[in-house]
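dumping this here so i dont lose it
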């Protein structure tokens, strides 16, 4: 298997470098080597590498910024995906791609299935949905993993921001009317490798499709923040804002350029059944990431 990984320095891309390496020859390219705003050069790069699998972890992920630069978001999240999909099809290759809970309008409380009607609220959501469709249209051997609330140990993340703010301030306010499952880049990368191996081994395009992939369980951003702060407090980290000082507020308390879906719950039964996998509770991955973070800063 020759795998071309794009966006290799992002949260998910970085973990994919680790999880895909045992599957075969891995060519991992960053933005400088494969720029999604240059479609012709991107296509030429794919032809030159001639992979049997393309894994695309690159995207325009700055959700509020995307409202101000819709053309760039469309170029990265949709048009470039179409270019890659056509090249993958010409090579007979598999293409793995990531999408988001933002393709939904966030209504209701039931977890979204792969067949649920889409209704993106933002430029980011609309362009990600367009990318999914281009991939489905142009490449038969596709795996699209829709995920939510991604974090990674490397770089900044919500948990680290909460710990910093809780150390600086007497009181914190966190949104409690958006629900989803924090999902680790590690988990996404590991499941990608396991699923890809099965898809390739099966032959044909039998396992191709869209799958929801998120950690098990659900919480609000407030519940997530409380978990992080309680965890750190129990391990002796000096914090000012703990317990009831971490206060729940509605989304309307924060002015964001892009509306967020209130219901980001993803039903993962299709993925678990198709690939025979279990998805751990969201707290497992967050606790692991926090342990590493706290050990590093101790
Ligand atoms: P990151 O923002 O961490 O990484 C995105 C990557 O895209 C970066 O490596 C970035 O490069 C690269 N990139 C940006 N612009 C270009 C360009 N012009 N050409 C080539 N590469 C470019 O994203 P995540 O790892 O968090 O996201 C991975 C996937 O998961 C994406 O498809 C995203 O939509 C999806 N997703 C993410 C969620 C989240 O909460 N983060 C939630 C749901 C889905 P550089 O490092 O140089 O900036």
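and the seq i came up w/
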């Amino acid at each position: 298997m020759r795998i071309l990984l794009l966006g290799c320095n992002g949260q998910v891309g970085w973990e994919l470098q680790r999880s895909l390496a045992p599957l075969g020859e891995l060519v991992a390219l960053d933005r400088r080597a494969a720029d999604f705003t240059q479609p012709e050069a991107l296509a030429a790069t794919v032809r030159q590498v001639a992979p049997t699998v393309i894994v695309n972890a690159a995207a325009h992920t700055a959700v509020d910024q995307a409202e101000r630069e819709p053309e760039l978001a469309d170029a990265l999240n949709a048009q470039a995906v179409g270019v890659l999909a056509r090249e993958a099809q010409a090579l007979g290759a598999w293409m793995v791609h990531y999408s988001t809970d933002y393709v939904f309008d966030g209504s209701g409380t039931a977890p979204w299935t792969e067949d649920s009607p889409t209704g993106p609220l933002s430029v980011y959501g609309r362009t990600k949905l367009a990318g999914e469709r281009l991939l489905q249209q142009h490449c038969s051997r596709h795996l699209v993993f829709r995920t939510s609330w991604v974090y990674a140990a490397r770089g900044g993340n919500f948990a680290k921001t909460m710990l910093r703010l809780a150390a600086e301030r007497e009181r914190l306010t966190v949104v409690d009317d958006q629900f989803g499952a924090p999902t680790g880049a590690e988990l996404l990368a590991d499941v990608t490798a396991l699923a890809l191996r099965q898809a390739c081994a099966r032959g044909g395009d039998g396992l191709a499709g869209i799958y929801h992939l998120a950690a098990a369980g659900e919480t609000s951003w407030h519940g997530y923040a409380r978990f992080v702060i309680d965890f750190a407090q129990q391990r002796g980290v000096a914090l000012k804002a703990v317990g009831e000082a971490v206060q729940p507020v509605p989304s309307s308390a924060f002015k964001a350029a892009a509306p967020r879906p209130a219901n980001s719950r993803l039903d993962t039964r299709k993925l678990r059944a198709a690939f025979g996998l279990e998805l751990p509770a969201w707290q497992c991955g967050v606790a692991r990431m926090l342990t590493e973070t706290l050990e590093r800063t101790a």
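The radius of gyration is 19 Å.
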